[in-house]
Amino acid sequence: MKAHQADDLATAERLYREVLELRVAQPDALHYLGVLCHQNGRSDEGVELIRTALQVTPRHPDAHNNLGNIHKECGRLREAEACYRKSLECSPQHHHALSNLAVVLEAQQRPLEAFDAFEKLLKAAPRFAQGYYLLGLFLRNNAQGIEHIEQSVGCFREAYALEPRFVQALEALSVSLYTLDRRDEAAQVYRDWLERDPDNPVPRHMLAACGGTDAPERAPDDYVRDTFDNFAESFDEQLLKNLDYRAPEVLAAALATVLPVPGASLDILDAGCGTGLCAPLLRPHARRLVGVDLSGGMVKKARLRGGYDDLEVAELTAYLQQHRQAWDVVLSADTLVYFGDLGPMAAAAHDALRPDGWLAFSLEVEEGDGDQAVLSSSGRYRHTRGHALHALQRAGFGDIRISEDSLRKEFGQPVRSWVVLARRGGTEAP
């Protein structure tokens, strides 16, 4: 278990199996080996090991909870819910099971039941900082009025008061304050954070996002890397909580209208691959599928998910510049929102594509007919249609197709997005 906690998974697996050779069906070894197998991308094996452990110790709340976590992270929400409820039958105040139950209920669009689970959680564990943080996100994501955003502010403040190292609560607090148009308060949160941690790129960038300093042309690499390294473990869970997140599916469907019938014939780059959500959608078209991301934590999760022929940790524009005419398709789902000026990336993508190759990406909508990229309070950039069009035209793309859709929700409301396709060597569509 010490090796497992130190993330030395190879040693931990060897020792768990030695225990099981000495004592067949030792339940703790089965349970934790099951967790480890899931961490290594062998989720089905993990499920069977924990189920075997539960045959030996059927009233083990932690084992039921961890079995639920595997189902949750594999997208099997009903199975996860059943496991969490079984854990709570064994231990009614098991706060991790209550927290996870609230998450999967929200993911199944059952907000009233989710809220009831959060109330039980904070009654059972009134000093559980993560519980206040999750409730704050729930209130903001499902806000029906301004009062829910105001309540989220209180939750984030309480989470940070209980756990002063919980910097995600600070960031969430500032976003809620900014949403309430309390911009000076939001900026002050980041200034105070920077005073305590002057080298941290997150408050530095987010202070600019609140208008406290000049906006950079793009989000700094260290900000993106740190944000997503810290977010990697909970990334898929956060997306599960937002069932309207559809960027991979929408972009893959858009590409399907211009690509040949899937025949595993194309070299495809998933640019900003994250945890690998696009891989199963792109794989039928791919002779070779490569993912690249600035966050090593995200790439690690994508490697466990599987589906790629290769995965690399690299800055996107530099990677494209190093691979000229290497790809038939470059797809970037929900990544270019961290770029302000799209010009350098568009030029690099054009050179990285082969003749008649396709670039597909998503952006958040900025209103207006001009050529603008605006840093928003979320730390992401919004772009006008004109900016995307002009950047692609200047890079040499033709057959440019820009449509509007909603790829996710924020604060309970759909986020307007551009879905963009452009072909190297085509002619611009009317």
From TrEMBL:
UniProt cross-references to PROSITE patterns, sorted A to Z? TPR
Q: Where are the TPR repeats?
A: 27-60, 61-94
User: What keywords are assigned to this protein?
Assistant: TPR repeat
Q: What are the Methyltransferase type domain coordinates in residue numbering? A: 269-361
Which InterPro entries does this chain map to?
A: Methyltransf_11, OGT, SAM-dependent_MTases_sf, TPR-like_helical_dom_sf, TPR_rpt
Would I find Ribosomal protein among this entry's keywords? no
- Keyword Secreted included in the entry's annotation: no
Please name the PANTHER family in this protein's record.
UDP-N-ACETYLGLUCOSAMINE--PEPTIDE N-ACETYLGLUCOSAMINYLTRANSFERASE 110 KDA SUBUNIT
Q: What is this protein called?
A: Tetratricopeptide repeat protein
